[in-house]
Write a structure and sequence with these properties.
Blueprint lengths: L4 E4 L5 E4 L6 E4 L9 H14 L1 E4 L7 H11 L17 E4 L21 E8 L7 E5 H6 L3 H8 L2 E5 L14 H10 L5 E5 L1 E3 L6 E3 L5 E4 L4 H15 L5 E4 L6 E5 L3 E5 L10 E7 L13 E4 L16
Length: 312
């Protein structure tokens, strides 16, 4: 791992930058619910700047401690809008239920997109199983001005019945099929701006990923072409950072400024399990000030954000 920048705060917390656009490792902190206010503020600042941050050596951390730490940074959601069988406080990201090897921002099929996620390694394969994050802010900033204006004018519909779901029923593994049925047990669809104004930093970010069903107002062919144009900007290698997990690792990312991809490069007899806690976020708002709108599904039991905005 290379480090081209290190900064220290009054809390003795060290931030080691991992890339120009995304990623930093945080050293000198023991995660839990007892962190002081200055350390929490330093973690918040590092997350805002680097979009995804990593902590090594957190072997002491339990699910309860992970939840207490999350509470210092925001309001945890329920584990998932539809999945209720994979955890009470956290969602189990378990390879026995399938592998999330698609680029996505967490839970964009609801109107209240989570502001952040915290992921803790519990069981890892003996090789492979890393995760890659991409900065959707860097992707937007890299667009030529005409494409920025085009993206800002577009809205996209996201759903939890996403484009590769049909192939899951052909999977011979019953655990994977059962998980997919639970994932789709309540249908959600939300219309989001393609460019969101980040509610905390004011930065502009592309809001896309695998849950996108269609760009509003376009044919399927045109929608797919534009989706690929902008999505491919997100996943350029220059906009990414890749983390090779070790037990005791914790990753935290700004869900409103990133996408991520779990690399499926380990064999079926290897097991990978991590626990994820997400923090509630507000309804996204586009450059023109128009918020996201609900097409189908009510996510009030997932997190509370106030009155819903419904599509006409």
């Amino acid at each position: 791992m290379s480090a081209d920048h290190t900064a220290e705060t009054e809390t003795d917390l060290a931030v080691v930058k991992l890339g120009a656009h995304v990623g930093a490792q945080i050293d000198g902190v023991r995660l839990g619910g007892d962190l002081d206010a200055r350390t929490v503020a330093a973690i918040r600042a590092a997350l805002s700047e680097h979009k995804v941050i990593f902590f090594r050596g957190q072997h002491h951390l339990t699910e309860y401690g992970q939840y207490e730490f999350a509470q210092l940074l925001g309001q945890p959601t329920t584990p998932h809008p539809t999945i209720t069988s994979a955890g009470v406080k956290s969602l189990a990201i378990d390879s026995r239920h399938g592998r999330s090897n698609t680029w996505h921002t967490d839970v964009t099929f609801v109107d209240r997109v989570p502001k952040a996620s915290i992921l803790r390694a519990v069981s890892l394969p003996s090789y492979g199983g890393s995760t890659t994050w991409a900065s959707t802010v860097a992707a937007y900033n890299a667009l030529p001005e005409p494409l920025k204006r085009l993206a800002e004018s577009l809205r996209a519909r996201h759903s939890n019945q996403y484009d590769y779901a049909a192939a899951v029923e052909d999977d011979p593994d019953e655990n994977t099929r059962a998980y997919r049925r639970e994932f789709e047990s309540t249908y959600f669809e939300t219309e989001h701006p393609v460019v969101e104004v980040h509610p905390e930093t004011g930065e502009r970010a592309l809001l896309l990923g695998c849950f996108v069903k269609q760009i509003v107002g376009l044919s399927s062919q045109e929608s797919h072409a534009l989706f690929r144009l902008f999505q491919d900007r997100v996943t350029r290698l220059e906009h990414t950072t890749r983390w090779d997990w070790s037990l005791g690792d914790v990753a935290m990312w700004d869900n409103r400024a990133t996408q991520h991809y779990a690399v499926d490069d380990y064999d079926s007899n290897e097991h990978r399990r991590l626990t994820r806690i997400t923090l509630a976020g507000p309804v996204p708002v586009g450059v023109d000030g128009t918020p996201s709108t609900v097409i189908a599904g009510i996510a009030e039991n997932y997190s509370a954000v106030g009155a819903l905005t419904r599509a006409a």
